[in-house]
Amino acid sequence: MTGAPAGARPRAGEDGFEIPGRGRGLLDVLQRRYLLRLLVRKELRVRYQGSALGLLWSYVKPAVQFCVFFFALGVFLKVGQDVENFAVYLFAGIVVINYFSETFGNATRAVVGNAPLVKKIYLPRELFPVASAWVAAVHFLPQFVVLLIGTLIAGWRPTLGQLAGGALGFAIIVVLAVGLGLLFGAINVLYRDFENIVDLLLLVVTWTSPVLYTWVHVRDAIRRAELPDWLLTVYQLNPVTSAVELFHYGFWYGATTKPYELPPNLLWNGLLSLGIAVAVLVLGQFTFRRLEGRFAQEL
């Protein structure tokens, strides 16, 4: 080696090789985009192998979900009777929650589900949760197209600020879902109970986010119960809540003909929620890197 004293032992990395099992986390995923594409293709191929509908399930499942919620809540319980274009409002929330649920749930199972690869070769383990986010994005895209068509039919005329709000909402949900996927995916290798815990969390998130109702219902319920007003602030600082509200602002509010009361400090809460999501991503990456050395042994 040039530059090294005779007989000196080269330090790690000086010989041009990397120490196996050590990497730079998510930065390695950016450098190995080809592997990421292969994993995404593999996940899609395995998921729809032998399926007659294939990617059409990206339309069928949210359509059934939408119909159940719309008729159960909007028609029978009349939850959306005061909400103009309630169908657009409902579907805008559904596509966000579906992306979050699919990314978080599949990322939690990603390392365990790819156990043969983890045990046989070294590659950045973060590729598996990130691939789950990309697979979810493939399913999100057709749902988003349907949402755009519906909101255009409803008379959608967005402002630049509303479009920025929708983009911010999606950024929050992506960062949060990947961060939680890294965190729970790493712990799930050691304790498989976390798969069931995540399923319960996703059920809670669906019903506690303003997808099936508006934030006004939450405010009025807090006031009727004479609870402190700061509970509403805590509710709105939930990153999932902020993401859903921003998506409503971006893709529903511009299709309304009468003014609606927006959540207070919507943009500010969105930025704070993005900060919380980034903190979760950092925590998830830290936990993942601390535990990944045990993955092959535990699997």
TrEMBL record:
Protein topology in the membrane: Multi-pass membrane protein
Entry superkingdom: Bacteria
Record protein name field: Transport permease protein
Any one GO biological process: lipopolysaccharide transport
Methyltransferase is among the record's keywords: no
Keyword Protein biosynthesis tagged: no
ABC transmembrane type-2 domain: residues covered: 53-291
Chief place of localization: membrane
Subcellular location: Cell inner membrane; Cell membrane
Keyword set, alphabetical order: Cell inner membrane, Cell membrane, Membrane, Transmembrane, Transmembrane helix, Transport
Family statement: Belongs to the ABC-2 integral membrane protein family.
Residue stretches in coiled coil: none
